[in-house]
Amino acid sequence: MSPPAPGPRNRITDVPGLSVGQAQDVAARTGVTVILPDDRAVCAVDVRGGGPGTRETDALAPENLVEAVDAVVLS
Questions:
Q1: How much is the pLDDT for 32?
Q2: What confidence score (pLDDT) does residue 62 get?
Q3: Strand partners, 30
Q4: How far is CA 9 from CA 54, 55, 58, 70, in A?
Q5: DSSP 8-state symbol, 28
Q6: How many Å apart are CA 60 and CA 39, to the nearest integer?
Q7: DSSP letter at 30?
Q8: Phi/psi-derived region of residue 27, left when phi > 0, alpha when psi is between -120 and 50, beta in every other case
Q9: b or e along 31-51 (b: 16 or more beta carbons within 10 Å of the residue's beta carbon)?
Q10: pTM for this structure?
Q11: What digits encode the pLDDT tens for the residues 7-62?
Q12: In a 3-state reduction of DSSP, which class is residue 46?
């Protein structure tokens, strides 16, 4: 079986069932991206590096009770 072909723009916004929003403040040099699935979605995370600066990613570990997420926020 061949891997799926990329969408027309080869972006996450090509994935059916996902909405993506982004806002930024250029002067403050900050921003946020939200990935919002149409329905709750199973989610996993792979954190790498010595100082990852993550929050709430441990809730996605298999031994915890989180089964699905409503959104993913990157800031």
A1: 96
A2: 80
A3: 25
A4: 29, 30, 32, 25
A5: T
A6: 17
A7: E
A8: alpha
A9: eeeebebeeeeebeeeeeeee
A10: 0.76
A11: 899 999 999 999 999 999 999 999 999 999 999 999 888 888 888 888 888 888 88
A12: coil
CB neighbour class for 72 (10 Å; exposed up to 12, middle 13-18, buried from 19): middle
The tokens of 13 are what?
């916004």
User: What SS3 state is found at 58?
Assistant: helix
- The maximal CA–CA distance of the chain, rounded, in angstroms, is 48
Residues in Cβ contact with 20 at an 8 Å cutoff, skipping those fewer than 6 apart:
12, 13, 33, 34, 35, 36
Contact status, residue 44 vs residue 62, Cβ threshold 8 Å? no
Q: How far apart are CA 42 and CA 47, in angstroms?
A: 17
